[in-house]
Design brief:
Elements: H1 2-17, H2 26-37, H3 58-82
Length: about 80
Amino acid sequence: MGRHDDEEREFDLRWADGAEFKEPSARARMLAARWKENPPEAMPFRGEPEGVGPRRSSWISTAIVLGSVAAVIVLLGYTNFRAP
């Protein structure tokens, strides 16, 4: 009996997937009704988060990282040079 139920279920899924019209989800219906009366404001795709200042240039960040690495290398070389 289990095999027969699986075949019927598979048929039902194929039938449902092949439907020409699919009803929107409850959330989609709710948002459509809400936006019909009160449309949302236009927003950029990825706006700047509030409270965040302007970003620094990537060149400045790169220079800071490379400068720090160079300073560590020089410091390690100096300490190994002075060690007996």
